[in-house]
Amino acid sequence: FASHDRTMQDIVYKLVPGLQEAEMKKQREFYHKLGMEVPGDVKGETCSTKQHLDSHRNGETKTDENSNKETSEEKQEEDNDYHRSDEQVSICLECNSSKLRGLKRKWIRCSAQATVLHLKKFIAKKLNLSSFNELDILCNEEILGKDHTLKFVVVTRWRFKKAPLLLHYRPKMDLL
């Protein structure tokens, strides 16, 4: 399903003149302001370079024999950054059905690359539902496709509105 999202992303970028360039510019400015490398700019040794910079920034130099285990754990943590370095989206998840309960924490922040299917699985887990297929997620009262990324939803359905992205969930309605 990831290739479908990339195709949709390409279509949106082609339909909205200058959007891709503006997004890349904002992303670069953000990372430069934080003094970080832009993800995807340098291929290959990014993790080890960042690790090297971090150890020098903290004023410590590590020897291989003393910190082999620690270094491999740090590298593993960096490899598993769980999309924290992705562009983030703030979301408010509200229930619009009396058949389901609301979430205790309806405000979440996650990667813009997360899909509607990820949200369905998240909600189903939080509400102890037997299947995420029992849910519909809507934006502006329109059912969202499971493969849509949150970035796509923001760009196409929430264009000029302020964050957070307001999404509603309800039990899936089967059409006759």
UniProtKB/TrEMBL annotation:
Basic and acidic residues bias: start-end ranges: 51-74
Q: What positions belong to coiled-coil segments?
A: none
Fetch the InterPro entries from UniProt.
PcG_RING_finger, RAWUL
Query: What Pfam families does the record tag this protein with?
Result: RAWUL
> Per the database record, which ranges form the RAWUL domain?
106-170
Task: Outline the segment boundaries, as ranges, of region: Disordered.
Answer: 41-83
Give the range the annotation lists for the signal sequence. none
| GO CC, any one term | nucleus
PANTHER family reported in the protein's UniProt record? POLYCOMB GROUP RING FINGER PROTEIN (PTHR45893)
Give the UniProt keywords, A-Z: Nucleus
Q: Where in the cell is it found?
A: Nucleus
In Swiss-Prot or TrEMBL terms, this protein is called PCGF3 protein
List the Gene3D superfamilies hit by this protein, alphabetically: Phosphatidylinositol 3-kinase Catalytic Subunit, Chain A, domain 1
Q: What is its main location?
A: nucleus
Q: Which CDD domains match?
A: RAWUL_PCGF3
